[in-house]
Input
Amino acid sequence: QKEVEQDPGPLSVPEGAIVSLNCTYSNSAFQYFMWYRQYSRKGPELLMYTYSSGNKEDGRFTAQVDKSSKYISLFIRDSQPSDSATYLCAMNSGGYQKVTFGTGTKLQVIP
Amino acid sequence: DAGITQSPRYKITETGRQVTLMCHQTWSHSYMFWYRQDLGHGLRLIYYSAAADITDKGEVPDGYVVSRSKTENFPLTLESATRSQTSVYFCASSDVEGFTEAFFGQGTRLTVV
Output
């Protein structure tokens, strides 16, 4: 079993929809949770990160962490075609040495 | 231009050849990383560096060598390329120990034939 599980998709939604992207994990030591967006043939770019449990909002994006369920989510409101990309979750227990990435979920927002 | 750049962007090489992938960052970030990205595996850490002359192995270091004589450069060398090293390689840098503000390069797509 992988330490971080992420549904690869693809996930297709109409423009304006609310998108929910999720990851589950097994390592209870994880404390930092990150979401990256990766456009085709580009490097990942950090969208946002959260520490421990709770919600964090940044514009149309909301990251949610439920440590009791070992489950994290990224919500995208009013999705746009420009949001079409692969979304990677990442997490670690602190420090730079060991960041574990999910395999990514491919999202397509249809105009 | 400020940022992190990788070269080359695309490379085809033959089995057994030595290949070096370059990574250069202009922010003077302390931490630098090399990842490979393969379908079904996500990003896996090859090597990382906390500062010039300080490097350490990641999850999949076999067959790779790194050096960091200058803060801004972090080259990755495949000593004797194998087909299993066909992948997309990403370099990243961060000024924060927790990796929460890491920046990735555009990637090098390497094919070993």
Notes: Chain A has no helices and eleven strands. The first strand of chain A starts at residue 4 and ends at 6. Chain A touches chain B through 25 residues (CB under 8 Å). The radius of gyration of chain A is 13 Å.
